Amino acid sequence: MAIVSSSSGRTAQTCPSACITILGSTGSIGKSTLEVIDLHPQYRVFALTAHQSVAALLEQCLRYRPRYAVMVDENAATRLDAALREQGAETEVLAGAQGLITVASHPDCDTVMAAIVGSAGLAPTLAAVEQAKKVLLANKEALVMAGDLFMEAVSRSGAVLLPIDSEHNAVFQCLPHDGRRATDDVMGRGVNRIVLTASGGPFRETPLEQLAQVTPQQACRHPNWEMGRKISVDSATMMNKGLEVIEACFLFGVGPQSIEVLIHPQSIVHSMVEYLDGSIIAQLGHPDMRTPIAYSLAWPGRMHSGVSFLDLARQPDLQFFAPDLQRFPCLRLGMEAAAAGGTAPTVLNATNEVAVAAFLEGQIGFTAIPAIIESVLAQMTCRQASTIDIIRQADEQARALAAKAAAQISTQTATQIARSAIHHS
Ligand code: NAD
Ligand code: MG
Fold first, then answer.
1. Which helix (H) or strand (E) element contains residue 18?
2. How far is the CA of 176 from the centre of ligand 1 (A)?
3. Residues 199-217 pLDDT 10s
4. Which among 198, 203, 207, 205 has a CA at the least distance from the CA of 219?
5. Predicted TM-score (pTM) of this structure
6. H/E run at residue 114
């Protein structure tokens, strides 16, 4: 245990020391986690991992000297290893997806930040849960795709699961803390509803007829948050909020009928909990992921995050609107998948990953994303998500159908472009 002093001279609460694996350390959440750790020397970096960005992981390894570095791409692992040896660093390099599991479940690591994007994060995050680690969960796709099994594993192992997603972190902070686990029997403890806020993304007011033409660059320009490209597109379609409704159902053990989504363009109120007596408890702060990261690292204490304090007198009006499901069909699809349960969230997540990747590669237009997801959901039968094999099958089948649909749309678009070029020449 260590006492942390702040630069302002005030002393933060006693926070436990920890030995941390950061899955996805070169991403937006990974880097913010390292920035928080920079302020608090009692947190030691045990392992850092990335997909294939050698230069970024090399720089982090030289600075933080972790015991392990994992590169999922084997070729990148060889290059990282050579570069580290050249610098005389002692970090051991592991390659491949198995390396992620090794460092997430290693007995010498007690805390795991799950910040890989997409379904690739499921296996190592689950491995950390099964070893009863303190798991800081940013990787919402892991929970969406296998929520029942994931939460069962949390209960069985006794892992401490803390939500990093700003909305869920806010809800967690606003739930009753009466000595029981914050997430136990939420509705039985006077909660009436959970209210998730959403910025509405960059296209909240874009004329509907222009949405088909928006570019990946425009979609990734989020008004309030700086994030990786996949979640930025998810925010633009509002699939991010659909995924978050499902995430909240699993994390807090509530049905989607107990969750309301409100558009709040300023992203100052990160979410709220409404109680039976009419009280609403909200968590406010600047839109900066270092706050939920510092909260979860220090939990149950509090410590500085590096985020400046909010001056409410200088804030513009805080606005709230009901979301327009015509503009944001992905939010509707997310809420429908939450209500359907079983493999529906798995299929939703898999098709969304494929459709977003196709959009980012310029293969399909923005409005094709919900069209592909809706058509794949209609083609597949929803099953009980009772085993990992059933989940894998649903995931693979959904990806194959989504890839086929994206390729068809891409060919149609190319043919239309060619026809219109001939017509104009
Ligand atoms: P990012 O794209 O910036 O970073 C992703 C990280 O995962 C990188 O380190 C990358 O190397 C690694 N990675 C990518 N593909 C991989 C693969 N196949 N195998 C192993 N590693 C892989 O993403 P991000 O914005 O940091 O988001 C990470 C997760 O956190 C996502 O699930 C996202 O939904 C969630 N999240 C992010 C924010 C945010 O503000 N960025 C907020 C809430 C939740
Ligand atoms: Mg969020």
1. strand 18-23
2. 30
3. 999 999 999 999 999 999 9
4. 203
5. 0.94
6. strand 111-114
Q: Six-digit token pair at 124?
A: 């190592």
Asked if 233 and 220 count as a contact pair (C-beta separation under 8 A), the reply is: yes
- Is 243 close to ligand 1, i.e. is its CB under 6 Å away? no
List the structure tokens of 346: 């798995």
Q: Which helix (H) or strand (E) holds 407?
A: helix 388-424
Q: Which amino acid is at 262?
A: L
Cα–Cα distance between 134 and 257 in angstroms, integer?
30
Which atom of ligand 1 is nearest the CA belonging to 100?
A: 20
CA of 164 to the centre of ligand 1 (A): 12
- How far is 58 from 78, CA to CA, in rounded Å? 12
Ligand 2 centre from 16 Cα, in Å?
A: 26
Task: Kindly give, in sequence order, each residue whose CB lies less than 8 Å from that of residue 189, ignoring residues fewer than 6 positions away.
Answer: 175, 176, 178, 180
Collapsed DSSP state (helix, strand, coil) of residue 417: helix
227 three-state secondary structure: coil
CA distances from 325 to 58, 266, 286 (A): 44, 20, 27
**Beta carbon of 275 within 6 Å of any ligand 1 atom:** no
Tell me: the pLDDT tens digits for 293-311?
999 999 999 999 999 999 9
